[in-house]
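Action item from last week, closing it out:
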Amino acid sequence: MERTLTEVTTNVDEVQKRVLDEILNRNANVEYLQRLNLKGHTDRETFKKVVPVITYEDIQSDINRIANGDRSPILCSQPVSEFLTRMGEKIDTNNRGREREEITALRPYDSEAKTPGGLLARPVLTSIYKSRHFRSRDSPVSPYTNPIEAILCLNSNQSMYSQMLCGLCQNREVIRVGFVFASAFIRAI
């Protein structure tokens, strides 16, 4: 069922209760919650009473187990498929009366690694750039002038140079230039 923004923002407390209920029901038997003696309870009050606010260090050994290949339901009922190593942000491209808006957005691409257990560990932006959705040039979220090869170039200097060159060569189609992070702008200049 598709929900509108109005529906999910009108009764926020109820929506949050429902989402927490769904998460707790789906993950009631994970090892972490069992260690806290939640004992399969999935109600909000028991959760608030039993589950503490934690830090990364509190679950670091669990994360290491997952990274080393343990596929058991430690922190969540679904297997972990990837570790994201850095926060990023999405570039929003609003269509301003054109059928397709072309953008040059210089993107730093960082390499990826594998954990000892074989899971990918990579920055969130790298994960996005390598996704099928991003690579689909028909996608409304990726109307960029830069070819994917320039974005995914492992040499960041060559990547930035290639992306800037693509923007210059296609300057008649470029409406704006954007950077996901300010640091990319500094590196580019």
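Closing note: The chain is about 45% helix and 10% strand.
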